[in-house]
Amino acid sequence: MRRFSHTALIFTLLSTAGYSQVRFFENGQATRTGPDAGLFPDTPTRTKIDLSGEWHYSTDGREWRTVTVPSAYDWTGKVTFRRTFDITPEMLDRFSFSVVAYGINYQSDMTINGNFVGRHTGGYSSFVQPIPQNTLQVGKENTIQISVDNELTPRTTLPLCQQVGAWRTYGGIFRDIYFLATPKLYVELAEAKTSFSAGQSSATVSVRAEITDRGSGIKPEANSFIGFQVEAFDKLSGNLTGQGGIVPFVPQPNKSVPVNGQVSIGTLKLWSPEVPDLYVLKCRIVRVMNKEVTLLDEYDFDIGVRELRWGDGKLYVNNTLTPLKGILWHEDHPSFGSAMTYDAMERDIAMVKSLGANLVRFLYPPHPYMLNLCDRYGLLVMEEIPLADVPAEILSKEYFQDEALNYIKEMVGRDKHHVSVTAWGIGDEFEQTSSSACDYVNNARNAIKSVDDRYVYFATNNLHDRCFEYVDLVVLNTYSDNAKEFREFLKQSQSRYPDKPIVVGRYGRNIEPDNRNGYSDPNSMEAQARTVMQFYEAMKDSKVAGSVLWSFSDWRSDRPALTTHANDPYLQSIGILSYEREKRPAFEVTRALFNGEKLQALPVGNYAPSAPISYVLAGLVVLLSFAFLYNSNRRFRECVNRSLFRTYNFFADVRDQRVIATTHSLFLAVVISVTWAIILSSIFSHYRENILWDNMLSQFMGDNLKAWFVQLVWHPTTFILVISGLVLLKILVLIALVKLLAMIVRTHVYTYHAVSITIWSMLPYVILIPLTMILYRIMESEMYVLPVAVLLILMNAWVFMRLLKGVSIIYDVFPLKVYAVGILLVLVCTASVYGYFDYTRSTSVYLRYFFQSVHASM
ω before 70 within 30° of 0 (cis)? Predict the structure, then answer.
């Protein structure tokens, strides 16, 4: 049984009560400069105006407070940020300016000095926004304002409104932001392609650059020309390793022109996970006059030289077989949220490397510095756009596919020069029941292949996916924690896709933090370690290309999860490190497996599953109480017998004001309330590990309400007490409704009538009392689940018809009219409630998707 802290429960109750305010995770670091910056390493011709530091923010446009940027806010809604900055006259004359933002989540509108500059959507893709001329002014009175909205929708945003188990959608300017000042004739972008000589002893790097002139006024003169040159330097030593010739070109005012350059690298050092050697390419615009060369602009970026080849379903790096030993990493930290510092990111990557991993999977484009780190540490990368859990009806929309293709363009454009990137991901667990899904896959693959030749994949748990023919890798997720089932899953996958490399894109186990009961307890940390051990050995035996363990550390989710075993319903406790980066037994097991070391024995423990005693005790108390009153009180016994076996006469007596003791009615209401509370607790406890059930609850509950409800589900005793009160409240509402409808039909009904009819119509529920003590246990056998469901449905139908019969008698209305109106009222109310959720949350679309996903994984 999971243990909850009282603090977590109190926090959830406060959240449910509506307490909310903008909470910031402040990074506080300046943008990194020098040759190892995230984007645009510093060069002699360029400068940066760092916009990190103190900003003012407002949620209503009236009250302004201060916050340090970069920072992430843990809140959903629109926040406006504003700050001033200084531009000197010399800079305004010499430079052209662009805003470089590494990440603003989700949608942002930017103005400078009151002039609209641009809009960007997509929280994890970086962007460069040129600033129009005459927007900036000399002095310190320049003002930049950015309106940020991180609210996701069920249909139109990318990612969509997050489902259970996804990551936290922090808002704000959560990564670096600065002005990039370049010469007015500058290299806007450059991309490199490498070709090897025989024997891979040397290589030729071809560079294609876009050179833009934003009013430089530079023109070729007599005895001079403007040229483009590429030089290569060893990243570690700084030594020149190759120098290309100067390629003349003619700048075009206010236009971009393509220019090609080339450089040869002799005595080649190949990049590999074991030896991650890098080169720095310096792309220069120069003026050549009488053999004198003047530097006009310099654009630098790192490259690595390596050959990736897939053969016989395996990856070869520089002709060396490289089994993929991967791990998932989320950009989330208890101190910084998604606004992680450079030091925090490097500590994580250093731990990944020490683990023996050679691959990191990113479910969305990470901070650019993470790719730099993977290049330097020798970690292969699977990088994806955040297209996850998308139903077919939404994926088929043209606007959504356009949004996805734009995201792909930004991701590949930013990161294709990174040697660590091994494959591009175009989605995770989207529905593939229509041809439009395969159309999207094909279009996305073609969009990537037009600019980069690395492999393309999507990830799914559906072995029978028909869209795999359009991608290069078969990436399969597994949500099982059963080693035997997993081995069969691998066997089927290899049989079905013998000609494609197969990568297990997800495996792992959700656990209860700090549970050290031994692996016999399925929620223990030792059980997680044993699952890693069993699954890794199964993959090793099956000879798949590799796998990705979920995950490096715990992370926080947008949606509370019933299936999580953490004290916090928003915390996904699936990491081999805790959220605070504390090692769990699975970390050492993973390290031993990845490095081929001897494994230490794991403690078994003496765990034995047992039904919560509270069900037996509560059911026994209710049963004995009812039996005692039934046997000791003749009047109560007669009411029970007449209500069950002579229903019409009983309700007629109520109409004729034959007195039923109020205490007996109230007692019966309490008995019924507790009975249903135990039944509901048993049902929800049985399904608290069920992902489908978890997602369905999120469709019909607000996040704060569900978080509170999750706490109750994992606390059976508290659940029974609280839900008993809520069921009793529901009975009171029904009593009030019976009284109100009497006024509508102009029938005089006393409160006594409404109370007696409503409560005593529910008498058949007492038949369920013995069931409450054993329901949790018998539902462990799937063969009894359907009979129990049928029994509860029939019982509710019986009670509903009894209520309508009683109402028809005290209203003195023809019964068929009451039945018709009652059933119609229930249908209208149900349709209205469902219609509301369907309109606001696209519930029908997602329910079809959830059931389809479950069916596909069987």
Answer: yes
CA–CA separation, 21 vs 14, rounded Å? 12
Integer Cα distance of 372 and 172 in angstroms: 23
- Cβ(211)–Cβ(285) below 8 Å: yes
pLDDT over 60 at 15, yes or no: no
Q: pLDDT, tens digit, for every residue of 336-353?
A: 999 999 999 999 999 999
Rounded Cα distance between 611 and 685, Å, is: 10
Band of pLDDT at residue 113, cut at 50, 70 and 90: very high
| b/e code 403-439 from CB counts within 10 Å (16+ = b) | bbbbbbbbbbbbbbbbbbbbbbbbbbbbbbbeebbbe
Residue type for position 24:
F
How far apart are the C-alpha atoms of 695 and 560, rounded to whole Å?
10
**Average pLDDT for the chain:** 91
Which residues make Cβ contacts (< 8 Å) with residue 680, sequence separation at least 6? 719, 723
Domains and CATH numbers, the chain: 24-183 (2.60.120.260), 185-303 (2.60.40.10), 322-594 (3.20.20.80), 618-857 (no CATH)
**Going along 113-184, which residue ranges are E strands?**
115-121, 127-130, 139-149, 172-173, 177-183
DSSP symbols for 212-251: EESS------TTEEEEEEEEEEETTT--EEEEPPPEEE--
Helices (H), 389-523: 392-395, 398-415, 435-449, 483-496
| Predicted pLDDT of residue 857 | 62
The Cα 307–Cα 254 span in angstroms is: 39
| Amino acid at residue number 242 | G
Q: What pTM value is reported for the model?
A: 0.91
**Phi and psi dihedrals of 845, rounded to 5?**
-60, -45
Which whole-number Å values give the CA distances from 150 to 18, 161, 450, in the listed order?
19, 10, 32
Above pLDDT 70, what percent of the chain?
Answer: 97
pLDDT at 3 over 90: no
- pLDDT band at residue 19 under the 50/70/90 scheme: very low
Q: CA 442 to CA 221: how far, in whole Å?
A: 49
Tokens of 812: 């003195």
pLDDT at 791: 94
- What spatial distance separates the first Cα and last Cα of the chain, rounded to whole Å? 28
For residue 408, the model assigns a pLDDT of 97
88-113 burial by CB neighbour count: b if 16+ within 10 A, else e?
A: eeebeeebbbbbbbbbbbbbbbbbbb
Residues 816-836: tens digit of each pLDDT: 988 998 899 999 999 999 999
Q: Which residue reads 């006259």 in tokens? A: 89
Q: What is the 3-state secondary structure (H, E, C) of 697-728?
A: HHHHCCHHHHHHHHHHHCCHHHHHHHHHHHHH
Distance CA 301, CA 352 (A): 24
CB atoms inside a 10 Å sphere around CB 497: 18
Cα within 13 Å of Cα(3), Cβ side? 6
Helices 716-744 and 613-632 cross at an angle (nearest 10°) of 50
| Dihedral-angle region of residue 596 (phi above 0 means left; psi in -120 to 50 means alpha; beta otherwise) | left
| Total Cβ atoms within 10 A of residue 30 | 15
Q: Would you say residue 530 has pLDDT above 60?
A: yes
Enter the tokens of residue 235: 């990243």
Percent of the chain residues topping a pLDDT of 90: 74
Type of residue found at 803: L
What digits encode the pLDDT tens for the residues 181-199?
Answer: 999 999 999 999 999 887 7
- The Cβ-side half-sphere exposure at 249, using a 13 Å CA radius, reads 27
- Per-residue three-class SS string for 609-649: CCCCHHHHHHHHHHHHHHHHHHHHCHHHHHHHHHHHHCHHH
Q: What are phi and psi of 516, to 5 degrees?
A: -120, 45
